[in-house]
Amino acid sequence: MNAHTVMDYKKLVSVAKNVDEKFNAFNAINENLSGGRPISVKDNICVSGLECTASSRVLRGYIPPFDATVVEKLKNKGFSVLGKTNMDEFGFGSFGLNTEKQTKNPFNPEYCAGGSSAGSAIATASIKDHISIAESTGGSISAPAAFCGVVGFTPTYGTVSRFGLIDYANSLDKIGVMSRTSRDIREVFGIIRGGDERDTTSTDREVKDEPKRAVTVVDNLLDLVDGEVKEHFQDLLGKLMNAGFKVNHTKIEGIEYAVPVYYIISMAEASTNLAKYQGFKYGKGAVDYGTDYNTFFKRARASFGAEAKRRIILGTFIRSASVKSRYYEKALRIRANLIKKLKVALKSGYLLSPTMPIKTPRIDEIERLSPAKIYAMDVLTVLPNLAGLPHMSFPYAYPEDMPIGAQIVGDHFDDYSVMSFVDEWEKSFKYKFKYSMG
Amino acid sequence: MKIGLEVHVALPTKTKLFCSDSTSYSDEPNTNICPVCMGFPGSKPVLNKETLILSANIATALHCRVIERTSFVRKVYFYPDLPKGYQITQTEGAIGNGGSVAISGKEVRIRRVQIEEDPAKVVRGENYTLLDFNRSGIPLNEIVTEPDICSESELKEFLVELRSILYYQGIDIDREIKTDLNISLAEERVEVKNITGVDSLLKAARYEILRQGSLLEENQPVKRETRAFDEKSGVTVSSREKETEEEYGFIFDTDLTFYDTKWIEVKKPVIPRLVAEKYSKKYGYDEEKLREAIYLNRDNMDMLAYVDDGAAIEKVVNLMQKLRSKPTKEVIRRLLNSDINNLSREQLERWVRGEFDEPEPVNMDEVRREVAELLRSDPSLSKRYKENKNTVNFIIGKVKKKHNVSYNDIVGIVDSILSDNQV
Ligand SMILES: [Zn+2]
User: Fold this and answer.
1) Which CATH architecture has domain A6-212+353-428?
2) Active-site annotation holds for A140
3) Catalytic residue among A80, A140, A353, A420
4) Confidence (pTM)
5) Which of A6, A46, B213, B394 has the most other CB atoms within 10 Å of its CB?
6) Nearest to A249 by CA among A210, A220, A227
7) Which residues share a beta bridge with B10?
8) The pLDDT of residue A410
9) pLDDT grade, residue A119 (50/70/90)?
10) Which of B40, B42, B78 sits opposite A297 (nearest CB)?
11) Is the CB of A170 less than 8 angstroms away from the CB of B254?
12) What are the structural domain ranges in chain A?
């Protein structure tokens, strides 16, 4: 590790501010940064003493009295937090637009950065050697990593403690890492992973590094991909075959349910997680304590953004007794079924697909789309997320000077095996960055 | 008439259900709190496993089946005492299911025993409301009955039985018991929510019986509604909530997992009603008197089991009524050998403390009779004694319950009996 001088930190803080001015990458920047190896942290992960809002007005002013387990572990290994990165409110979004400070793509600010871990991807793409702690529920690491041209890793569910993470959907949330190389991810994952007695769903199970020489393409998934993206992806498959990889093809029945199943489960869980925001004990409160409870709650909860309100309403409906068996319970069964099928497909190697079905879209294009159309963009990322499988998005082409990403998926606890694939990819492919500040 | 109850009792644990804060809620308000029981964003619940052990025992004492894998759900509603906006509780995955409590001539079925967290305490003032989160997250068992209770006297009896069963599970009955009362004299069910204490519960039930009864008498409909009990005036009042089916939107709490219960060693539960019945039959003694003595008194229960002597039962019950603290076994024996009716209150208490005025007289004739009987009933004893004098310890064990005899006393008696027999 380099010895950092005092000047380095001042410069780094000003770089972060610059990146923020250009692309709205940060919700908070640690101006007092004066030591340690800098890392940024998505703003839904608690850092003691730093405001944590998950980009929500309802949480404005919330200063957690504790560090998330991942932050604690990183601090113990000499890391220090440069800033809290911007995101779609509570993780609700795939394009980085559901936040008061809409994020922009560092390759071209008229384009989307991707979401929800938008700020983490922007910071990583703009700051030299930067590493960011991100989080994915249904694709929130892969999507912005692909659009901003960085490597984004989402681990096996449970390998990284969620203690200190502001919940979106507890059965789906995973803290992961973004960086400019797979090597950095391996190092940081090695630090943050492991069971935690403060998170019941975390586990100490061993993580394997058994690289595979075969990738499987799910053809009926690829059918849902935009023509141009598909062409580039075929080139990637060609390169892999030349490098000695076997490429298998398969079909998985029922993948068309993945997006609705993901939204049903995540909205149901989210609508309960958001019930705690009442303006009483932290965050933005209703000013007038003299009203009755209902009025008080209504005022405090009015500060949720539109997408958060939509998910609370839909999630509450999904949980209601009259329809629960039709949506929520059915979704749980389909989820279990999809996991089984994915694990069968993974027997013959990694799964590989483009990360997003479209090229990086313009911000105004996305703003014109209906929520359902926007949700459909998650079709490729929700599968490994629903199944809690480790996956990684890596850049593989730069058509018209914009990066596109592919997503490699491994079996449960094959996290290091997934990194090994990208390690090998990076030996023959050099990533491009428009900025390398710092 | 149909009455069903949802009874909430606090479990006697040192720490809360999902965090390590103390359960002592008499402390300074809002001192036993942390990010978990305050519902701070980023905090996660971690189950206190001791609650599984306690609840499995309670469920068993209520004749419930203990589920093999228990799980938790979120019950979502908005109220200022609920820091997360949902309560972590149990439904289908409840620890205990399908039990019963016996009362005179029938059984009141127990639908479920579920583990859940207590909300914060609400303190209402003239024009303000205060919240004490010391209580937030205290582990509770909610005991849900079927609507099998059909009269006020059955309700009373059920509560007496339930209290005594819980007493023997270590549930501090002085702590508040909170109950939701479902009561219907006609078709429509009226729920009286959040009644604190047993007395208030009985008052609320009595009031509802009168209120619904008079409505029916006047041919007026009884509305399906939620009511609250006002302790001061002793009446129930409509809560003016919307009269629709409650909608809590339960879902599985995925911060938690399934918890195996097979490792839990459930102790054979003490059902005081059955104990009283047993001794009453055994000795032909008044069951009601036995109940009174043992229902909420472990010392008395221990004494009854220790003495287990039909001839002394009257005296034991008499003692139970007189004693205020638990005597040692030696004291019990000595008391039973004395004329306790002639002891002054003060003297009795000194005895219980082990302060005797004079050495205990031993009735050697009776000891000799009992030892002779023992030797006769087990001929191998004499043989073993001849080989090893320490066999005396076994004999002492047998007669010690009633007589304060020493090793040498018994050796003398056994030697004398054996030599008599040889003559
Ligand atoms: Zn606590």
Assistant:
1) Alpha-Beta Complex (3.90)
2) yes
3) A140
4) 0.90
5) A46
6) A220
7) B140
8) 98
9) very high
10) B78
11) yes
12) 6-212+353-428, 214-254+337-348, 256-330
